[in-house]
Amino acid sequence: MDYAAQRRGQRGLFEGLYRVIMRRNSVYVTFVITGAFLGERAVDYGVHKLWEYNNVGKRYEDIPVLGQRQSEE
Fold it and tell me: Which residue has the higher pLDDT, 58 or 31?
């Protein structure tokens, strides 16, 4: 069996992605927009956690005297 006949029997990863995602424009655009939205959320979450980790003790919420109000009695 030659290589070309063997390739016809097996479909590659990119061919499968093409058939599922990129064949129709509406599905492809939806995939890109959803991926961009989820990617932006993941990067935002990661950067926020990294910023909090690097600034422990320097934030307004971490200073015990600042954020407390006098109780009215």
Answer: 31
